[in-house]
Amino acid sequence: MHWRRQVLIFAIAGVLAGTGLPGGAVQAQDVPEAGAASKIDDLMDTKKHPVSVTMAMQADSFFGFNPSIYGTYGLTDNIALAFNFTYWTMISGVGVHDANPWLETDIGLNFTLLDKRLSITPMIGFVHGQLLSSRGGFFPNGGGSVNERTTAFEGAVPNITINYLDKYVEGEFYLGYYKAIRSEGGSPGDQGPVCPPVGTGGGNCLGAVAGGARGTWDFLHYWANVGYRVNSLFSLGVHYEQLLTTRDNSSPTAAQDYYRWIGPYVEMKLPGGMAFRFTTGKDLTDNQDFYKLKFTKTF
């Protein structure tokens, strides 16, 4: 009889283990936890969701050094989440924080067509700093004011980029509208205080000049280029680009064309997702030369 009691005890323990009751080895909540982990792993699966990130080191004769990082996260075969971050490092101002580099953040969708030869990317972006909201900072030919407020989300940037690439032809079009959505710069037209020179007690200007007109302003920035791919390594093309203010309330005649560039470019594509492009030509607004240099590495 003693051995029969032992068999009965082992049988009950086996039943408890199968049901997950106290004394068993399995708990019901283990199953959904495993399911949640599986969903997280699925979002990080680059076979299902291809990821592309490009680092661009670029500079030109107007904006100076303006590196950017942009990329996509695949949602379906022809639709991806798109993002972009641009550091307009030379557009900075003296304000609450002495270094106010203009920062742009964009997010949108990327659509590919024609067997992925054509790419269309509409995005909505925001800029942070003091350029749009107070005309603050050092901006070429802009007469920006100083000692302005550092402002996050000072402007909105609806924009679109269209790219085309096949065996022989490449092209790009970009259009972005930089619209002030906050006003932090005081009364339009107010010239503000005189900024004393560096070293004379409390100034960050290069000389004793007026701080610049106050107010807000909006910009339109666009470019288009098209090129011929000589081979897998080199391509040659032509580039046109314009920047202008569509609104500037600092004075009745303040709105202006900042530049209209046209000229050729040469690009060298290298293995490993790298490319160099140099563009130069004439500025049609003042008959000066311009130049642009861009290096990209795609991961």
Explain this structure.
It is a single chain. The protein has helices at 2-19, 30-43, 131-134, and strands at 51-60, 64-65, 68-74, 79-88, 102-113, 118-129, 151-165, 169-180, 194-195, 209-210, 217-229, 234-248, 257-270, 274-283, 288-298. The chain is mostly beta strands and 299 residues long. The chain folds into two domains: 1-44, no CATH class; 48-298, monomeric porin ompg (Porin, Beta Barrel), CATH 2.40.160.40. A twelve-stranded antiparallel β-barrel has the order 1-3-4-5-6-7-8-11-12-13-14-15. A two-stranded antiparallel ribbon has the order 9-10. A hairpin with a 4-residue loop joins strand 3 (68-74) and strand 4 (79-88). Residues 3-31 and 193-211 have low confidence and may be disordered.
Rg is: 29 Å
Q: Identify the strand order in the major beta sheet.
A: 1-3-4-5-6-7-8-11-12-13-14-15
Instruction: Sketch the major β-sheet.
Output: 12 strands, antiparallel, barrel
Structural class label: mainly beta
Question: Roughly what fraction of the amino acids lie in strands?
Answer: over 45%
CATH superfamily of the largest domain: monomeric porin ompg
Number of strands: 15
The number of helical runs is 3
Q: What is the CATH architecture term of the largest domain?
A: Beta Barrel
CATH class category of the largest domain: Mainly Beta
* N→C terminal distance: 73 Å
Low-confidence stretches: 3-31, 193-211
* Overall helicity: 10-25%
Morphology: globular
Give, in order, the helices and strands.
Answer: HHEEEEEEHEEEEEEEEE
Number of structurally distinct domains: 2
**Overall pLDDT confidence:** 81
As for the CATH topology of the largest domain, it is Porin
